Amino acid sequence: MNNQIDYSLLESVMNKLPSSQLTHTRSIALKYLKENHLPSTKNEQWKYTNLNKAYNLFEESLRSKNISSDSLDDDQEILNAIEAHWIVINNDNLVTKNHDIEGLTITSLSKNLDTTNILIDDSLTSLNAVMMSDAIKIKIAKNNHLKKPIGILFDYGANIDNQSSSPRCIIEVEDDTSIKLIHAHTAKVNKPHIINSVIQINLGIRANAEFLKLQNYSNNQTLIEKSKINLSSESVLNYTSIELGGQLSRADIIVDFDEKSSKALINGVYVAGKNQHIDNHILANHIHAMTHSSQNFYGVIGSKGCAVFNGKALVHEGAFDTNANQYNHNLLLSENAEINTKPELEIYADDVKCSHGTTVGQLDEDAIFYLQSRGITKELARQLLTKTFITRILADINISNTKEYIEGLIELKLKEVS
């Protein structure tokens, strides 16, 4: 198929989803989708990322008669490796409420939509809304300071017959609350599978959120995810993205500075190996004055791997005293490695401090030679230098028991791509 979906087929599948409080939302989303085109390489924001294979797989899932999900895989390594209050979602179904934690509520929106806003602002978020059988809302009440992180794991079952999933998670962090969140895309499947995911995060006044996204899918999986984060006055976000797996992974991270004096640190690490495509698009949307954003992404691209980085800071009129910077550093391990990088600044206000930069290079042969002279093999020297380059960003992660686990995954990945 070419950039379009059989809408009659999509509507037929949508109508087979269980009737719930989300039924009307799905209808609104379908109307939006019919009026807007799915992205293609003709769109500037998608010129380096071709979704035709993903669309084909999605349409195959619509034609499949099997719309059930596989059972939960209880042997998820991350559940044991990182201590957290784990919330497990199996193909839109909440299967683990985990604990009674003071100030924390978990709601299935198919049963209790209340006034929750379901984001529908482009064709892919609308496609997600059309196909979601449920959505999960996590709310942390005001004046709470949870010491142990909350982990969110989307699990599809290793042998899932569905070829597509549409998870959505909405996280509400109320005023004067601090929270640490781990969003794990680590449940691998054995068959081709596309995940079209939407994450909505709202931070209240003076809220503080540490957010870690970890993606380590198999090469059967495609992940398209939009994360929309709204910051209230004096709120602080520390966001880190780790992208290691998947055949194709596209992340859109949008941070809206809705009120003054809010801050966001947006960091990322990505490692693309053979036949992998990893695309990060970040927007720091400075709507109000006295806001601060920093984007720092480090990438390693191996032979026949491809990565895309587009980081943008948009400073609106009247958003004075904005401080925005963005940097992207890339290490190419082969002549066949590809990176397309584009940091951007768009400024409509005075009295701002903004900067951006990018680097693309290869390993320092002198440094490799020096390590070899100390008895280290050339292969190990390359791995050590590459690890040093990419793991420096992990110093900004303030969630305990995660760095060692992440470093282990990165080491395994670097051995694969070196």
Briefly summarize what is shown.
The chain is of the alpha/beta class.
Describe this structure in words.
- There is one protein chain.
- This protein starts with 6 loop residues before the first helix and ends with a helix.
- A hairpin with a 2-residue loop joins strand 1 and strand 2 (93-96).
- It has a ten-stranded mixed beta sheet with strand order 2-1-5-8-10-12-14-16-18-20, covered by helices on one side. Strands 3, 4, 6, 7, 9, 11, 13, 15, 17 and 19 form a ten-stranded mixed beta sheet that branches.
- The protein is built from eight helices and 20 strands.
- Helix 2 runs antiparallel to helix 5 and helix 6 (365-373) crosses helix 7 (378-391).
- The chain has helices at 7-16, 23-35, 52-63, 77-81, 123-131, 365-373, 378-391, 403-417, and strands spanning 85-90, 93-96, 104-108, 136-140, 150-155, 164-165, 168-173, 178-185, 193-203, 208-215, 221-231, 236-243, 248-257, 263-272, 277-286, 292-301, 306-315, 323-332, 338-347, 353-361.
- It has 418 residues and is α/β, with parallel strands linked by helices.
- The longest helix has 15 residues, at 403-417.
- The radius of gyration is 21 Å and the shape is globular.
